[in-house]
Amino acid sequence: MHLTTCLSQNFLNSSSLLRRPSWEQNFRTGFIDTGRSVSTMVLFLLLGFFVGCHSSEPSASQAPATTTLWQNQVTVVSFPLYEALQTAGGVQLNLFYPEVPSGKAIDRETVKRIQASRLIFLDGTHHVGWVDTVSLPETRKRYSTFDIMDQLIMVDSLGSHSHGPGGAHSHPGIVAQTWLDPALFKEQLETVLKTCASSDLIQESDVANLLENWWKTIRPLDDQLSELAKQTPRRTIVDRAGTEYLMRRLGWTAEIQDLDQAFASDATQLEVELRQRFAEDETLIVVFTKPAPTELVQLLERLKIPQLSLDLIEFSESGGYWERLAENLKNIENITRQGS
Hints:
- The structure is a single chain.
- The protein is an alpha/beta fold and 340 residues long.
- The chain has two domains: 52-138 and 178-224, Rossmann fold; 229-339, Nitrogenase molybdenum iron protein domain (Rossmann fold).
- It has helices at residues 38-47, 79-89, 108-115, 182-198, 207-228, 244-250, 259-265, 267-280, 294-302, 321-339, and strands at 4-5, 10-11, 19-20, 73-76, 94-96, 119-122, 141-143, 153-155, 173-174, 235-238, 253-256, 284-288, 307-309.
- Helix 5 runs parallel beside helix 10 (321-339).
- The radius of gyration is 21 Å and the shape is globular.
- The two termini are 37 Å apart.
């Protein structure tokens, strides 16, 4: 088994604003495999290895002993996983999800609570910035993605982010948003439930029922996604990493392009290149995972290039997982109808 890998696209030429892929990132046939084995992946996860990211908190050896209050607490770093566990069997688990607003530092009391948890579920990604700034006790760390390592996707740039005094930076990493493919996310949730059972936090005999509690609410959306995957594959330009698992499930191709930056750099040149790209392939869609500048939206409308809005469902402030995933699928369905 190998870690699926997406590498950077090469520039068509030095003056081009849009990068041309040197190969098609086709999620139906799979990604280029660089031979990074599961054993290497495990090493990445256990060592927390990512270039340029270091902890700024005291050593985990200074972490408080598990207190009576938190002795059975399960900390998860992913909002969708937290909500899924609540749906599956929240009454049986003492769950904690430390959501830290973007640009804010995690407070020390929250750090102490995390460090004192019975189990701390990470996913081996840069999805949550505070994970890279906090020392966590190794004996309590678990990886929710352990059983789906061969299905994870690595990209050459996760986009600009910051999680400490070093300022904004970007580096390669594993895409976090497994939850955009419910079937894949189900496997991840099962790993967490089984791990909780092995730690005597729930009964092993309850795992299947708890998993079904969640799946019965999500399965209609997964069925809808399967139907959408039967439609004609589309090519997409996406504004940042995060949609890869969804695109793979749909069988769509995707390339990451920072259109905001390209538009700010040279709007006229960008228009020329987008016009050319759409003339070459009328199945092209531009995907936004965050609000785009009005002028860029108007440019795409003028060129009659379809736009698709997708929610990466990273944090809780915009509503629940089910509602937001349903909205994503509704938006995708509307796009496919336009092309039919």
